[in-house]
Amino acid sequence: MIGLLDSPTNGQVFIDGIDTTKLGDNKISSFRNKKLGFIFQFSNLLSDLTVLENVLLPIQIAGTNSIAEKEARDLLKAVGLEDQMNKRANKISGGQAQRAAIARGLINKPSIVLADEPTGNLDSVTSDTIVQLMKSMARKLNQTFIVVTHDREHFGDVDRIITIKDGRAFEGEQPSAMEVLVKWI
Length: 185
Prior knowledge:
alpha/beta; two-stranded antiparallel sheet
């Protein structure tokens, strides 16, 4: 619902004070591209595009930001891919593809970033680097990160933890369960 990929059967979804349930399909697509960032569990990069082109895709779709390429290069450098920018997405490793996908999810400086196992395909050192980048952006840009993870220890202090276990949601941590972490302190 938050990602505007489905509509509620009742109730409303407000993002940045806007009732998204009243938006038509075209406005939802535009709103989603400008206000939401997605980091999928699997990178979903377009294999025929370069790493840099994949990261620039949300900006190009929105038709905004003339300095986007510099920002994309800076993000790729921050995730450790400065030497992979011009390679085709199908020529990099799975961990590199995940880091490119993280940069793509952050390029539009979205209000909300929805991250599904963002560090699941990364080694522990790279995971820590990525989490620090996300925390830094959350603070600097006042972004909300909603992170779904089985790997709680990488994420440190967060504002709220919702644990989902056996299809039920609990406030706080539960052992051996999927956790949803909401925004860093």
